[in-house]
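Predict the 3D structure for this chain.
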Amino acid sequence: MKISPVVFLLCAFSFPATWAQTPAKTVKPVASPVKPLGKPPAREEPASPESLEIAQRVHVGSMPCELGATVHLSRDPASPGYFHVSGKGFRYRMKTVATTTGAIRLEDQKAGAVWLQLANKSMLMNQKNGRRVADECAHPDQVAFAKDMVNNPPPALFDTTGMGR
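Done. Predicted structure below.
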């Protein structure tokens, strides 16, 4: 088989000669996005008395969530008012934050993660990405409260009975 001179020149000058002589580079494995929990930061502010009171109401343990996800919540024994929140592909160290609504809120400001605990469910959100990481997470106490809400629904926000209608 004959190669035309034009094809030969195109092939010869398309790739530098050094490419053919360099050995293949090995690809380093990508670091896992989950970082191991280390010691608490050196300049960590201690939790306020209000935060410590909120921390007593946080549900801890493994909580099943929607779509088969699970979130594990545990208290940080070295720092009262701080918690470790982990699951598949994430790990956060969060502290309690006071809210005006009464919902329990834990935050990892550095990572932008927020754990919200309501009476009937909990959810984990990533504010930096603007998405929910885990939703419909429920501790057994929250499951019982949700069942009670079905049997005894709370009053409607706009109750029109007794207003002359």
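Residues 13-20 have pLDDT under 50 and may be disordered.
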